[in-house]
Write a structure and sequence with these properties.
heterodimer; A: 593 residues; alpha+beta; Penicillin-binding protein 2a (Domain 2); five-stranded mixed β-sheet; 17 helices; B: 119 residues; mainly alpha; two-stranded antiparallel sheet; 3 helices; 60% helix
């Protein structure tokens, strides 16, 4: 750049000649120079502004374009991200307490047809009928040649069947992938598991939804992808459950019973280790619920949870425990048991006449209705009802099964003194075997309330206190005496110090009154009695033991031997080591002051 | 000096372009491989699931019970009973080895009938 001098000599000289002020020339030049400088800096500033504007414009264009693109594209899985425990099955497995599979999924195929793209509909129909014997060739032909555009043929087919259908070679027969629920153990724990079926169905997939049992209760949890395919762990033990079902089935047949149920529960945590109800069903082919007849005769009926029965003398334990806890009686208190006992127009009888009086222990050991009724009168109806309420016998069980609310105990409408008396020996109040198990656990585990659960709960906090530890210990000794010298003498299992209480209640006749020859026989037991680990309830529906000249129906002859056999088989499996029972504490009387 | 700078810049841009081009293709190849691997994993998981189901099916208690009954002559398997629990004291340990004999004792005995001495 050529810099113009402010005072060019030629112009100065000529200006001097003309007599002008040469400073004017300098000022003029200075002005021009400043103008040039100003123009230049403005141009530069404008250029910078333009560049900035362009930059902002393109940045916003990129952001806008990206947003538009993101909004317009279909969502895809991130391809590059490492897949961890990816969700493979749409429904989580169910496992037992040791992690053995109770329910899992299998990928199969469904078969559907698009008749308009079929080549030989008649031949395809005949071949399909040959592969699937339950399909009718004529119906299929009608469907294939009619106006239908789409029809399902089979919801689940095996790989062999799929190959056979492939071999028909018709382009109108198509397969859709299906995840099906399978229960590899068949009928085992069928009432606990329930079953599953297809919900909304499409060609490419179908929902699998639970229809009963834990499958339905935990339907949302099992289908929640947020769990990352983590299985649902139940408190059931597969081996114990299988053994109980086997022994119970044998016992049911031997005792000519119509149905049977057994509940084995951890006495401290309330975990249900096994729950069997017979007759049962195979959840892989869950039968349709019966539309007529008594629903309790259906194999779908879970007697342990839904079956509410008058459980008879097993309830005596609650009356005696409460009376002792209140300090009304102790184990040695004598109670009048003169039979029959008359109360208004009602008469209470014992199975045998036990003489003028019995100690409280002997009332339990010999199962005296009259003695228990007299003790219950001392307690009074209100306190009795409140106590049964704390044991959970007035509400449906809180177990996590969809059937639980249907097992609502049947309570007497009013609670006069005669009800207090009958309820004390288990008549007039119906509850399910699971109720009984939870209540026994609460009273006998040391006296803290137990809430039954079907989920594995390693160390639940002990519940609120129901009875004192001492009462609980005295009750355990009484139940042990029932087995050693009382009504449950067949319940003795060497090494396991079984304690228990029998209960035989006449079944109510739907047309009023009670049947004379139909009983619900119950054996409620704990083992080992000196340091209980488990509580087990065995209930037989209408048993009759026919080895003698007269059929014997009471629990001592029917439910107790079955229960003892179950304990004999199951206790070693539960890891209980046979123990020599500590001797009864002579000289020390366990009573309240 | 300036022209060298231009040349170097141009070369750098070309180099970067080539690198980006190559990286792009390598990424595509890796993504394809990941897709393949993930589909492999899916298939393996599927078959693992089938195997697990089969394992559970073959080990179902009903079947094991039947097998134990069928093979009773060879296996003699019986249900677990309380008698099978033992204590550590019941385990038969081998007898402890004798300590070395350092001072042997000479013994003599006399039989009364024969009056013979035997060492």
């Amino acid at each position: 750049m050529i810099r113009t001098p402010l005072r060019p000599l030629a112009r100065i000289l000529s200006a001097r000649d003309r007599g002008e002020n040469p400073d004017a020339i300098e000022r003029e030049n200075l002005r021009l120079r400043h103008e040039a400088m100003r123009d230049k800096s403005r141009q530069r500033a404008e250029g910078r502004l333009l560049v900035m504007g362009l930059l902002f414009f393109s940045a916003f264009t990129v952001v806008g374009a990206r947003m538009g693109l993101l909004a317009a594209t279909d969502p895809v899985e991130p391809r590059a991200a490492a897949s961890g425990a990816s969700i493979l099955a749409q429904r989580a497995d169910i496992v037992d307490r040791e992690g053995r599979i109770l329910a899992t999924n299998l990928v199969t195929h469904s078969l559907y047809a698009q008749p308009q793209s079929m080549v030989e509909p008649e031949r395809a129909a005949e071949e399909l009928a040959a592969i699937f014997p339950d399909l009718d060739a004529e119906d299929l032909k009608e469907d294939f040649t009619g106006s239908r555009k789409f029809l399902w043929i089979k919801k689940k087919i095996s790989p062999e069947q799929m190959q056979a259908v492939h071999d028909i070679g018709d382009p109108g027969l198509l397969f859709g992938p299906r995840e099906m629920r399978i229960y590899p153990n068949g009928a085992l724990a069928s009432h606990v598991l329930g079953g599953a079926s297809f919900g909304r169905e499409g060609v490419h997939s179908a929902e699998v939804i639970g229809t009963a049992g834990v499958e339905k209760t935990f339907d949302g949890w099992l289908r929640d992808p947020g769990n990352g395919g983590q299985p649902l762990q139940l408190s059931i033990d597969l081996g114990v459950q299988a053994t109980i079902e086997e022994v119970l089935y044998g016992g049911m047949k031997l005792m000519n019973a119509k149905g049977a149920t057994a509940v084995l529960m951890d006495i401290h945590s309330g975990e249900v280790v096994a729950m069997a109800s017979l007759p049962d069903f195979d959840p892989n082919t869950r039968p349709q619920p019966a539309l007529k007849g008594d629903p309790s005769d259906s194999p779908l009926f879970n007697r342990a949870v839904q079956g509410v029965y008058e459980l008879g003398s097993t309830f005596k334990v609650f009356a005696i425990a409460q009376a002792m806890d209140l300090g009304l009686v102790n184990a040695e208190t004598k109670i009048a048991t003169k039979s029959p006992m008359t109360w208004g127009k009602h008469r209470i009888r014992d199975f045998h006449d036990y003489g003028a009086e019995l100690s409280v222990t002997d009332i339990i050991v010999k199962s005296s209705n009259i003695g228990t009724a007299r003790v219950a009168l001392q307690i009074g109806g209100e306190r009795q009802k409140a106590f049964l309420g704390t044991l959970g016998l007035l509400e449906p069980t809180p177990i996590e099964m969809v059937e639980a609310p249907t097992g609502k105990p049947i309570l007497p409408r009013t609670w006069p003194e005669i009800t207090t008396m009958t309820v004390s020996y288990g008549h007039g109040l119906s509850a399910s075997p699971l109720h009984l198990a939870a209540a026994y656990a609460s009273v006998l585990n040391g006296g803290t309330k137990v809430t039954p659960t079907i989920l594995k709960t390693p160390m639940p906090a002990p519940g609120p206190r129901v009875v004192s530890e001492q009462t609980s210990s005295v009750m355990r000794a009484m139940l042990r005496a029932v087995v050693t010298r009382g009504t449950a003498s067949f319940g003795e299992v060497p090494g396991y110090a079984v304690g228990g209480k029998t209960g035989s209640a006449d079944k109510p006749n739907p047309s009023g009154g009670y049947y004379k020859d139909r009983l619900i026989a119950t054996f409620a037991s704990i083992f080992p009695a000196h340091d209980p680990e488990y509580v087990m309830i065995v209930t037989l529906d209408e048993p009759s033991e026919t080895s003698g000249s007269v059929p014997r129906r009471t629990a001592g002859w029917t439910a107790v031997p079955v229960g003892a056999e179950i304990i004999r088989r199951v206790a070693p499996m539960l890891g209980l080591r046979p123990e020599v029972e500590p001797p009864a504490q002579h000289g020390i009387t366990l009573v309240r002051n | 000096m300036r022209s060298l700078f231009y040349v170097l810049t141009a070369l750098a841009v070309m180099g970067l372009a080539f690198w980006a081009y190559r990286e792009n293709y390598r990424t595509q190849a890796k993504l394809t491989e990941i897709d393949r691997l993930q589909s492999d994993i899916r298939h393996l998981r599927e078959s693992l699931n089938v195997l697990k189901a089969e394992w559970a099916y073959l080990n179902r208690p009903d079947r094991l019970r039947e097998l134990a009954a069928i093979n009773f002559e060879r296996l003699a398997l019986l249900p677990l009973t309380a008698e099978q629990f033992g204590t550590a004291a019941q385990v038969g340990y081998p007898a402890e080895p004798l300590p070395p004999i350092t001072d042997p004792v000479e013994t003599f005995g006399a039989l009364p009938e024969t009056e013979e001495t035997t060492p």
